[in-house]
Specification:
This protein is mainly α. The protein is 69% helix and 4% strand. The longest helix has 25 residues.
Amino acid sequence: MPADLAEKTDRYERLLSEALDAATVAPPEGTPLGAGADDLLGMARSYLEDGRHFRENGDPVNALAAFSYGHAWLDAGARLGLLAVPAEGDLFTV
């Protein structure tokens, strides 16, 4: 695997994992918007698991894609106000 692909895959996995740890549901739980925020977090977690599965099976390209898609779900939730995220740092584009 080329070094830049390995480095990028490592970085995106780390970013997604840290972003998942940092993001919380913004709307009240038990509301439709809270349920939507839970769904966004669930999708991001699924993509993190998928990416790790792809990586373990020697497929770094799909691993990188999965990590990227997972982070996109979190960024969308943050931009819509469904997820509370830290304003500082490099985890989110908000």
